[in-house]
Design a protein that fits this description.
Elements: H1 22-55, H2 65-68, H3 77-85, H4 97-108, H5 118-133, E1 144-148, E2 151-156, H6 162-171, E3 176-179, H7 182-189, E4 202-203, E5 207-208, E6 212-217, E7 225-228, E8 231-234, E9 240-246, E10 254-255, H8 258-263, E11 268-274, E12 283-287, E13 291-293, E14 295-296, E15 305-307, E16 311-313, E17 323-326, H9 328-331, E18 336-339, E19 343-346, H10 352-360
Parallel strand pairs: 9-17, 10-16
Antiparallel strand pairs: 1-2, 1-3, 4-5, 6-7, 6-13, 6-14, 8-9, 11-12, 12-16, 13-15, 18-19
Helix pairs in contact: 4-5
Organism: Ambispora leptoticha
Protein name: 5535_t:CDS:1
Region (Disordered): 1-26
Length: 364
């Protein structure tokens, strides 16, 4: 009987079999590749999400009648605003609330309070802040931008002078010129306005010191002026009774809106500021040019004095405002004396030297 040897052979350079099936190893490798691919995809998704969060502006919900009532001064204005702007309107996320309030007023007040260029300025504000949110000004962070008719007209490296702003508003009524630097823009959009106190000077048992005031632009050429009586009714503010009072606690003179309505937009900044102290949170229009003011009674007027800090209340400032205030910027340029139980007497130019002589001769 013969026997046979069984020889196990292998291919050259190949490890002997370990009797471990190949399929599980192949499955493990495939799983590792699949996991790595999934991790890469997840990382790409996260990166894309972060990039989107970084580049895209916040998405606000469309405004509604209810959300717009915060800016409403008269019933129906919120719906009127949506009718004008459309039901998908969203405030630009970067737009300050004071600017939103101003835009809302300019696009809803259909009386003669809204003057030439006011609506154009409001629309340019929307365009500016919407473009800012979308990054359209990237690369111009140190520049100023001029916007007119909702179009970027040009960039400048410096702030315009007062005369350049005057010329600009005559050529392009309602044009917007703002810095793109956020810190500078904040100071420009929200200027500091010292608080007024109404009313520090009072007459015992007689109430406030009422006065009449007259206002005109300096160098206007046409000599147009407006007179505010001791008391008057503002027909465009539900016939509210306004008083014109002397307020020694007010650093700056603040008058009723009809000064701007009658004299026009020339000499005024388009952008408003916020009142602090008396009248807060009403908006104020700030004079850009000097104005001249005398005060008087039913018989005579003081001489004209020039001020660079005139303000007027917004058209409908709210129930907390019922007075025009003749402030220290006017009073410090006039000579007056207090007569016991008779109030204040403002001296004419011919009386001032006599009072000076009298005071000089008083014993120390």
């Amino acid at each position: 009987t013969s026997s046979r040897s069984i020889i196990t052979t292998r291919e050259p350079d190949k490890e002997p079999s370990t009797n471990i099936p190949d399929q599980p190893e192949t499955n493990a490798m495939a799983q590792n590749i699949q996991d790595t691919t999934a991790e890469d995809t997840t990382a790409q998704n996260i990166t894309s999400t972060l990039e989107a969060l970084h580049l895209d502006p916040p998405i606000n919900s469309p405004e509604t009648v209810e959300s717009l009532r915060a800016y409403e001064k008269r019933p129906g204005d919120a719906q009127k605003f949506l009718d004008h702007m459309g039901n998908n309107f969203r405030w630009p996320a970067s737009m300050p609330d004071i600017t939103r309030s101003h835009v809302f007023w300019a696009l809803t007040d259909d009386s003669c309070n809204v003057l030439e260029g006011d609506q154009e300025y409001a629309l340019n504000c929307i365009y500016f802040y919407d473009s800012l949110d979308k990054g359209m000004f990237d690369g111009h962070e140190k520049d100023w931008v001029l916007i007119y008719e909702q179009t970027v007209k040009k960039y400048e490296s410096e702030e315009y002078t007062n005369q350049q702003l005057v010329d600009l508003d005559e050529e392009m009524p309602g044009a917007l010129y703002l810095p793109l630097d956020p810190i500078l823009r904040e100071k420009y959009v929200n200027p500091y306005i010292p608080p007024a106190r109404a009313v520090l000077a009072r007459r015992n048992n007689y109430g406030e010191y009422l006065i009449k005031v007259r206002v005109k632009r300096v160098g206007a050429g046409d000599e147009s002026s407006v007179i505010l009586e001791y008391q008057f009714n503002e027909k465009y503010d539900n016939d509210k009774l306004y008083k014109t009072v002397i307020d020694t606690g007010a650093p700056e003179t603040i008058l009723a809106y009809n000064v701007r309505r009658i004299l026009g937009t020339k000499g005024w900044l388009r952008r408003p500021g916020h009142a602090t102290g008396y009248g807060s949170p009403a908006r104020l229009f700030l004079a850009r040019d000097p104005f001249a003011v005398p005060i008087g009674d039913n018989n005579s007027w003081t001489h004209w004095v020039q001020i660079n800090t005139l303000r007027v209340w917004e058209a409908t400032p709210g129930d907390q405002v019922d007075s025009s205030l003749i402030g220290d910027d006017v009073l410090k340029q006039l000579t007056y004396v207090h007569q016991q139980e008779r109030g204040l007497m403002f001296l004419s130019s011919r009386h001032e030297p006599l009072l000076t002589i009298f005071l000089d001769n008083l014993s120390p």
